[in-house]
Amino acid sequence: MSFWTRTHNLSRMSLGDLLRVFFTYPAVIAYLLFGIAAAAAAAYLYRPGDWLGVLVAIGLAAVIYPLVWYVLHRWVLHSRYLYRSPLTAKTWKRIHFDHHQDPYDLRVLFGALHTTLPTIAIATAPIGWLVGGWSGATAALSAGLLTTCFYEFCHCVQHLNTKPRSTFLQHIKRLHLAHHFHNEQGNFGITNFLWDRWLGTYYESPRQVTKSPTVFNLGYTEEQAAIYPWVAALSGGTRGDQNPRRFRVDPDVRGDRAA
Q1: 141 by DSSP, 3-state: which?
Q2: Over the chain, what is the mean pLDDT?
Q3: What's CA 175's distance to the chain center, in Å?
Q4: In degrees rounded to 5, what are phi and psi of residue 184?
Q5: What is d(CA 42, CA 172) in angstroms, rounded to the nearest whole number?
Q6: Of 94, 109, 181, 245, which has fewest CB within 10 angstroms of its CB?
């Protein structure tokens, strides 16, 4: 029986469980396959003298990725206009609302491929082409796809009910869980919180900001559902500031949440 037909509950997985299943997830397989294909294309298209442009393209892709994620996370996924149209309500529900409704559900942790793949391509390939031609474009695309795998793995670790050994993972997990369980209007990064710091949305501890009443429903309240009913119809209603699953949270995070 496939793992995906047995469980999807991150709070009941160990890091070993996650390692065994991460690379079987369809989205991860797609990112890896497309990333390898793009790297192969870059090698095929490479011409003598292209090395500097290719290296710059890869570097720019790695640098711009956190900014692109921040912009999309803050001003698209956490905006309130996507649920106001029947054309985008279903997509918004799938790619972010469901994740905040149940942060432990692995099935909705990853973005939908029909939204993520074009976004990665648009964010990386044009810049790569400008500095390195077609070999730079495909190299940048490969870097973006493989960086996405790294981001998604860290994102999974942040939702495990275990304390990572790595100081870096402990730090980013604490910040990300505060985004999910205390105030969703800050800490928009996943592995890089530089743009949160620069744009005023970073908070080190939940004690620094007030508890948000919309941390689980992202502002899609009963009042909003009465006007824009499409997400509620698909979700069986809305949810206020209540944890949809009363799973135990990492002690380091629970202490801050109680503050």
Answers
A1: helix
A2: 88
A3: 14
A4: -80, -5
A5: 33
A6: 245
